[in-house]
Every structure is written in C-alpha cells, then in structure tokens.
Amino acid sequence: MAKEMQKASMFIERNPGDYENGDVDKNLDDDGRVKRTGTWLTASAHIITAVIGSGVLSLAWAIAQLGWVAGPAVLMAFSFITFFTSTLLADCYRAPDPVHGNRNYTYMDAVRAYLGGRKVQLCGLAQYVNLLGITIGYTITASISMVAVKRSNCFHKHGHHVKCQTSNNPFMIIFACIQIILSQIPNFHNLSWLSILAAIMSFAYSSIGLGLSIAKLAGGGHVRTTLTGVTVGVDVSGSEKIWRTFQAIGDIAFAYAYSTVLDTIKSSPPENKSMKRATTLGVSTTTVFYVLCGLVGYAAFGNDAPGNFLTGFGFYEPFWLIDFANICIAIHLIGAYQVFAQPLFGFAESWCARHWPENKFITGEHAVDVPCYGVYNVNFFRLVWRTAYVIVTAVVAMLFPFFNDFLGLIGAGSFWPLTVYFPIEMHIAQTKLPKYSLRWIWLKILSMICLMVSLVAAAGSVQGLIQSLKTYKPFST
C-alpha cells in the first residue's frame, strides 16, 4: 500500500457539482473518484512487477551464506509471512468495515483509521525513511551495473586476467544528472510510461540472469556447495559466518519488502477479496521465481557466488548479453528511482505549501515555453528541493557504495514495521481481538519474532558496512 500514496495522486479531483450530473456519475465510484476498473489479475501483475526487481540479484549470494537447508527455508518463511500479513492489510483497505467501510487511499490513512495517534507519524517515518534508503540503494545498484558494462567490454577485449578497474563515482554522477531532469516532472501520473518501461526491464534482466545460471549449470564444471552454505575455516571465519548469515536474511527481506498496488481494483466483488486473490497469485509466482534464481544461482556458482550475479562476473560470455542485462538494470532503476522518490517529493511540497501558502517561492508557478515540449510550469522550490534531494542521495551512495550491505540494511529496516507490525496491529484493532486470547498471543509472537529477525539482519548489514569502510577510500576507485 505504500505505492498507493503515489497512485492516489493519479485520481482526478471533481467539483461537487459534477456528482449531480448523471453522465459523470457513471464514470465515478461511490467516493466521487474515477471509477476503478482493475481486477485481481491486473493487481497480481502489479505485485509481480513490484516484487521482481534488483533484490533478485543478490539471492544467489544469500543462499550461498545460508546453504541448501536454511536458504530455501528462509525464502519460504518470508514468502508465507508476506502473504499472511498482506491478507490482513487487504482487509484494512476499508474502515471500519472491510467490505462496506470508507476507503483508505494510503497506508497512513489505514493506520490513522484503525490505530490513530502517534502510530500514524511512526508509519509515515518508516515509509519515508524506507523510500530514502531505496533511492540511495538504487543509485548504488545502477552505477554498479553501468560500471559492469564497461568492465565486460574490457574483459572481452583484453582477457579475464586484466583487472579493468573502474570508479563508480562518474556513473553515479551521470545517474544523478538523469534523475535531476526526471525529478522536475511535477506529477506522478506523468511517469506511467517510465513505470511500464521499468517493469519490462525488470523481467528482462531477471530472466537473463536465471537463463545464464541454467546455462552455466548445464555446461558442467565443479562448484562447491554445502548444506550449511559457506564453510567456517575454509571460506570464512566463525564470526564472518554469523554476520554474513544475518546480512543474507536482510537481503531476502529486501527482496520481499514490496508494497501492494491495489487501489485501482473495482469494488465488485469486494476489494479485499480481490486483493487476497491477487496476493495469492502474485506472492506464489514471485516465490517460485525467487527460489529458481536463488537455488539455480547457488548451484551454478557454489559458495563463491558473487554479491550481484550480473555484475560480480561469475559470467563473462556472451559479453553482449551481459551488457544488455546490465543496461536493463540501469534503465529499470532510472524509472524505479522516480517511483520511490515522487511520494517524498509530494509529501515535502504539500507540507510546505500548507504551512507557507503565501510564500511565492514555494507556491508560485512560472510558465516557460520549452521547444518540442510546450509550456512548462517552473516552481523554484520544486526545482531547488528535488535537485538537492538527488544530489544528497548521490553523495551518500558515493560514501557507502556497498550493494549487499545496503540492500540488507534497507530490507531489515522496512520489513518488520511496514510488512508485519502495522498490518497485525490494524487487524487486532479491526477485529477487536481480546487481549491475551490465543490468536492475539500468536500474532504478537509472530510480530516479535520478525522484529528480532529484522534487528539481527540490520546488525549484520551494519557490521558489513563497517568492515567495507575499513578498506574503502571515498570518492576514489
């Protein structure tokens, strides 16, 4: 539902008088907004598109840390928990009744309706910090993919023994420049074409990675895999094994920490039933895809699986296909960055406009005639704030350009509050579960277990960042 914040801005506001017009009514829902036409099938597609992203790139590495037993078990556990809490969240789309109540257009609206108080602010903080972390993570991932294209061509030309060292920083700057331009698009609904392109790219590079892993596995060659993953005393020390295990859990949490885009589902049958059906198909499909990518990737690379199996150069040939896959990643993340940044932009701009409505710097629009585009309304606050935001995310990415560590930290930070805690608390409030009843107890236990898992995953990622920073020199190759 976090993406519902973005989708909410897509609805066309109508004047009250419009509702009296019978010709308009047939195009509007009972809440006066544009009639929703989505079905459980389209919602399933949205979920699959949202889930299958850059998180899939680290799954082979994560399985390598956990092994053949714990790896699939953790994947399935996260799958089940995500599915279960998503069904609870679906019932919170309307309040107070899940079928006939008032619609909640954003995650925060649902929390406000069922929990209220300071938990609304905590939900908003969790969401926006998560969005900030994701945009930084995407800057890192996109630059790594662009560097991989350059290195792939270098390896093809000079041989695999050449180091072909390349700095990420110039590519982060290029990525940031592109985002500064795209960030000036004022409304999220103007970016629908970018979201469609990003979704196509996501499926393309994920499928290429899976296909290359299958080809490598079919080609033979011995790789070392074990039931428990990387071996203490051979691959890692005892402490490294523990920290890497925690970090791997965070990477898997990142892969499953998705936001359901279900607010365009039509109201008949009831939205919560369609959402649950969509969640079943969407989560089961992505779980099958994740298990394939993770397990086949581990079988192909063994305990030496790279952190990102498309940029870690487990594959060298065909170099053109690897280049294409990494270009797809970069294009996907260019669009995905805006998908996650736009709610932050909108929140800050609407908050400032409410508090300083007379300030022309914040609210003033200046029409500029742009060749080949037409009239574009420039808002100086939007220009300065969005540009500054992109620059800050790029600078932080240059300071901490560590793919697996950062993905694990984002996953650990977002999984428990947004995927587990708030859906469970809203369900308890909605159903008025008696305190200390059997269902109340096991829901609380599930929430506490997920909290502890998130804490250890965050600890593993932070430790990984600290270790990486010991040898890393910022703003250098």
UniProtKB/TrEMBL annotation:
<dbReference type="GO" id="GO:0005886">
    <property type="term" value="C:plasma membrane"/>
</dbReference>
<feature type="transmembrane region" description="Helical">
    <location>
        <begin position="40"/>
        <end position="61"/>
    </location>
</feature>
<feature type="domain" description="Peptidase C83">
    <location>
        <begin position="236"/>
        <end position="473"/>
    </location>
</feature>
<keyword id="KW-1003">Cell membrane</keyword>
<feature type="transmembrane region" description="Helical">
    <location>
        <begin position="278"/>
        <end position="299"/>
    </location>
</feature>
<feature type="transmembrane region" description="Helical">
    <location>
        <begin position="68"/>
        <end position="90"/>
    </location>
</feature>
<feature type="transmembrane region" description="Helical">
    <location>
        <begin position="383"/>
        <end position="400"/>
    </location>
</feature>
<feature type="transmembrane region" description="Helical">
    <location>
        <begin position="445"/>
        <end position="466"/>
    </location>
</feature>
<keyword id="KW-0472">Membrane</keyword>
<keyword id="KW-0812">Transmembrane</keyword>
<dbReference type="Pfam" id="PF01490">
    <property type="entry name" value="Aa_trans"/>
</dbReference>
<dbReference type="GO" id="GO:0016756">
    <property type="term" value="F:glutathione gamma-glutamylcysteinyltransferase activity"/>
</dbReference>
<comment type="similarity">
    <text>Belongs to the amino acid/polyamine transporter 2 family. Amino acid/auxin permease (AAAP) (TC 2.A.18.2) subfamily.</text>
</comment>
<feature type="transmembrane region" description="Helical">
    <location>
        <begin position="193"/>
        <end position="215"/>
    </location>
</feature>
<keyword id="KW-0029">Amino-acid transport</keyword>
<feature type="transmembrane region" description="Helical">
    <location>
        <begin position="319"/>
        <end position="340"/>
    </location>
</feature>
<dbReference type="GO" id="GO:0015293">
    <property type="term" value="F:symporter activity"/>
</dbReference>
<keyword id="KW-0813">Transport</keyword>
<dbReference type="GO" id="GO:0006865">
    <property type="term" value="P:amino acid transport"/>
</dbReference>
<keyword id="KW-1133">Transmembrane helix</keyword>
<protein>
    <submittedName>
        <fullName>Amino acid permease 6</fullName>
    </submittedName>
</protein>
<feature type="transmembrane region" description="Helical">
    <location>
        <begin position="128"/>
        <end position="149"/>
    </location>
</feature>
<dbReference type="GO" id="GO:0046872">
    <property type="term" value="F:metal ion binding"/>
</dbReference>
<feature type="transmembrane region" description="Helical">
    <location>
        <begin position="406"/>
        <end position="424"/>
    </location>
</feature>
<dbReference type="GO" id="GO:0046938">
    <property type="term" value="P:phytochelatin biosynthetic process"/>
</dbReference>
<dbReference type="InterPro" id="IPR013057">
    <property type="entry name" value="AA_transpt_TM"/>
</dbReference>
<keyword id="KW-0769">Symport</keyword>
<dbReference type="InterPro" id="IPR007719">
    <property type="entry name" value="PCS_N"/>
</dbReference>
<dbReference type="GO" id="GO:0010038">
    <property type="term" value="P:response to metal ion"/>
</dbReference>
